[in-house]
Design goal:
179 residues, mainly alpha, 8 helices, elongated
Amino acid sequence: MTALSRRRTLAALLALGGCASDPTADYLFGIGDPVRGAALYAPRNLGDTSRWNGRPAEAAVAVEQLEFLANELATSPRYAPEVSPSVLQQLQMARAEMRGFLGIADTAAPPLVIEAMRRTAEALRRGSRAAAEAALSGQAFTAGPTVTLARLGAMPRLPRTSEAAGAVAAELDRLDRRR
C-alpha cells in the first residue's frame, strides 16, 4: 500500500468516524480533525440538500456542517492561510444561500447558528417540536422558529451549497496531496 493510499484510507476512516451525526465532533475519539472530516463528508451531506426533505433533524445537521466549514476554514490558523480564496468565497455564498432560504440573519454569529442547529437536531430526534422551536427563537432567526423549522423539513436542492460542497472536499484533497 502506497503512502498516498494509506492517507486516503485514513481520511475515509476519519470522515466516517462522526460526520453523520455531528459534523463538528472530534473524529475517532479526538484523534481526527473535525474540519477535515466535515469537508470530506460535505459532498454527501450538502451536495444535494433536497435529500433532507422531510428530515428536518438531518437538515439541521447539514446546516450546522456548512456553518462550521465556512467559519473554520476562514478563521482557523491551520487552514485559513492555505485554503484557496475561491473555496472560501464559495462557502460564503453557500452560507448566504442557506441562511436566505431558512430565514437566518446574514449577521448572525456562526457559533450561535451552529449551536442552535445542534439543539434543533437533538430536540427533533427526541421528538420535541417545542424544544426545536425554542432553539430557533431569537433575533438571528428572522423568519421565526415555526417557519425556519418548516423550511428545514422542506429543504430544496441549493445550487451554491452543492458547488461549495464539492469544492471544499476537492480543496482538502489538494492540500493533502501537497503535504
